[in-house]
Each structure stands twice: as C-alpha cells, then as structure tokens.
Design a protein that fits this description.
With 429 residues, this protein is of the alpha/beta class. The chain is built from twelve helices and 18 strands. Strands 1, 2, 8, 9, 10, 11, 17 and 18 form an eight-stranded mixed β-sheet that branches. A hairpin with a 2-residue loop joins strand 9 and strand 10. The structure holds flavin-adenine dinucleotide. Flavin-adenine dinucleotide (FAD) binds next to helix 2, helix 3, strand 12, strand 16 and helix 11. The site of flavin-adenine dinucleotide (FAD) has 44 residues, from helix 2, helix 3, strand 12, strand 16 and helix 11.
Amino acid sequence: MKEKNYWLETTTIPAGESCPLPERVDVAIVGSGVTGLSAARALAKRGAKAAVLEAETIGWGASSRNGGMVLTGMKLPVPTLISRYGRERVQRMYAASLASIDCVEQIVREEQIDCKFSRCGHLEVACKQAHFDAYAASAALIAREFGHQLRIVAKSDLASEIGSEIYYGGMVDEVSAGLNPAGFVAGLAVAARRAGAAIFDRTRVQAVQREGSNGGQRFHIRTSKGGLRAREVLLASGADTSDATPSLRKKIIPIGSYIIVTEVLSEELARELSPKGRMIYDSKHFLYYYRLTPDHRMLFGGRAAFFPESETTVRQSAEILRRGMVHVYPQLRNTKVEFVWGGTLDVAFDVMPHTGRSHGMYYSIGYAGHGVAIGTHLGTKIADVICGGPNDIPFDGIPFPDPPLGLRSGHTWALPLAGAYYKFLDWVS
Ligand SMILES: Cc1cc2nc3c(=O)[nH]c(=O)nc-3n(C[C@H](O)[C@H](O)[C@H](O)COP(=O)(O)OP(=O)(O)OC[C@H]3O[C@@H](n4cnc5c(N)ncnc54)[C@H](O)[C@@H]3O)c2cc1C
C-alpha cells in the first residue's frame, strides 16, 4: 500500500513561475486551491494583475486530496439554517450551492479541463430507520423552499443505487457531480495562467501588513521569496491558514479526513457496488463518503482519526477505513487497498462557509468537507466583488464565531473530545 494521494498518480501538477516575484500587483492571493485559483482566473480575465502565492506545490492543500464530490446543498439541516439566517438568505445560500455545480461545469467546459467531470448525482444513505424517516420531510422542505427535487429511495429499491445491504434507504440528488480533484485544480492553474495570472509555488506568505494608500498599494506581503505590494489581498488558505494571518487562523477548526483507494475492480463488481456511479455518503456525523474512481477503484473516505494528518494518523486510518469499507461492502473483503492519504478540512465553529473582510483582506473559508463546488464558485464571485461588482454573496457578513480554545487551528488539544462527542451523537441519534 502506498501512503500517497492516488489522484496525483493520474495528474501532472504544473510548476509555478520561475521568475522573481513582481514588485506590485493588483491582487495577491494566498493559497492555490480551488478558491485561490478560480479567483485568479476570474481576476485575470477582467484584466487585473493577480499573483497567487502558494507555500507548497500548486493545489497542495485539500483541493488536490479530496474525494472529488461536487455536491449541492450545505452541511447543516435546512430548518437549522432558516432559524439562524432567515428564509430569504437561506434561499440565496441554497441557490449559490446549486449555481456552484454549474460554475464548476462551465469552467471545466470552457477551459477543457481533463478531470473526468460527470453529472453522476449523489446518494445519501440512511444508517438508521429514523434517519430514513426524516428524508421525506427534508426533501419536501427543499422542494418547497428552493424548488429543488430530491428523490427518496426505499430500502426495497436501494439495490438499483448501491450494492450494500446495511442501509435503511437513501435520497438522491441528480444535480451533483464527480471529478478528479487533482486534475481539476491542475487545470484551473493552467487556465488562470492562460488568462494572465502568475502563480508562485514554494512561496510561503509570512506576514501581511496594511500600509497607507501607497500609490494605491495598500498591503505589503512578506514571503519566503521576498516581498511584494498589493492593492487587495484574498486569503484562500483553507485549513492550512497560518500565523501569517492570525485573525483568520483562530476561526478555523482543522479536522483530519482520510481516504483509501483499492486496486482496480472488475467492471462487473464495480457496477454491483455502485450501479449508477454516484457520489455516496452516509447519514452519520462521523460519516463515510465513497465513490468509484473513473478507472473503477473504490475510493472510501472518512474522519477515521480526528487529528490533522500526520504519518501515524494516515497509517491508523488505512486500517480503520478498510474495516469500514468491508462493513459497507463485504464483497471487498479480499480486495487490496493500494493508496491511503489524508488532508485537513477547514471547519468553522458554526459549520458554515464564510466570506468577508478581515483587517481589509478578503477571505473565503469554512467549507467543512463540502468545498470543491462552493470554493470554486466563491473564488469567482469574490473576484467580481474585487473588480467592483455588487456583493450579493449570501455567506458574506453572517456572524463568524470563534471556536473555543482547544479546537482552534494551532491549539487543537480538545479535538479528540469533540470527536468522541460526535461518535456519541451517532450512537444515540
Ligand atoms: C480528505 C478530504 C476529502 C474531501 N472531500 C471533499 C469532497 O469530496 N467534496 C468536497 O466538496 N469537498 C471535499 N473536501 C473539502 C475540500 O477539498 C476543501 O473544502 C477545498 O478544497 C478547500 O479549497 P481551498 O482552495 O479553500 O483551500 P485548499 O485547497 O486547502 O488550499 C489552500 C492552500 O493555501 C496554502 N497556504 C496556506 N497558508 C499559506 C501561506 N501562509 N502562504 C502561502 N500559501 C499558504 C496551502 O498550502 C494550500 O495549498 C475534502 C477535504 C479533504 C481534506
């Protein structure tokens, strides 16, 4: 078994610029994931001089490591969202989640990105009868409030969707999609450059200082490769947001998520496991998510260990996930696991995406394992706002609570307790 990201075996990640940093740019973007690169592409297309600064290689963070699920909806139940933010805003949030799938599809098509994008839909499967019983009300509410149709699948019909007998039923959303995330982020980087943006890899941002309006350049950015000035800064640094921007870092709970990928399955077995090739996740808090890869391997992920990724957590996770996979699919009992890797989710304390400005810098963060589509969409929208467009982003300006100390990035000693709490919730509810 290789402790390696399978997607990177299928993709060539482009290298960054070989030239020195420019002295001045219109917009400096910290981070080269889907958020930063979609913003860079959109800014460059509008004629702004944009530079992406990436501490590691292009797409190094969650954007190249994820499950490749391009999902509609939000993490929290709709009634919770409506009671927090009101109907009108939640309708706009849900519309943004649907628009984000179109946004990814449009970029893939326009830029001819080879990432095997497919509108395969997603399937949520119920781990308990009570979870299944709640699906009908949830689908009716979503149809009424947002005009979006989900389809309930009774246990007796579930074999048409999944080759597993452990679930109590499911709910299908045909609008969601799947892709190869490393292929997508690599293609986004190529597209951003083609439009005129510059991407500097191995360029860690160490500090951002606000200056007086120095010829329109309001920020000085110190990096491991020298300094530059920018009129605007966009923080698109996800779960890896560092001490360079402490006010944003303290908002994020970094939660480890891990993935295993099996050897290539026979076409017959692949079809039995997932007849429609859906993106699948279950109804628990401590959930499993899984799918077939385009070459018919089973990709199976979950929060096997709660701490952010390290060599030990990756190795432990491989075995935990293998057991989870065999519980779902006993057919895979003797199938070899060929890859395991991990990454870190950027989770806000209220489990919501957040955009806005902090100390004058734009940010977009907090996608909580649901960021491929919405991150791409929000990067594009923030680029419009920076270029003077109206700010109609529904996640902008909602309250952004600080997590308690012990869960915050850099101080995560209480994460195992939070993990135990969610496991307890899965047991009782
Ligand atoms: C294992 C795993 C599975 C997931 N599965 C899914 C899924 O199937 N579907 C889905 O929608 N979402 C999924 N997610 C979440 C999704 O991948 C993220 O929400 C999304 O990729 C975040 O994108 P981003 O551009 O905001 O941040 P990232 O992709 O994390 O990029 C941030 C970048 O900023 C860089 N950076 C940080 N600090 C600095 C600095 N000081 N200087 C320079 N650079 C810096 C980092 O190196 C990093 O490359 C998953 C995440 C993980 C970890």
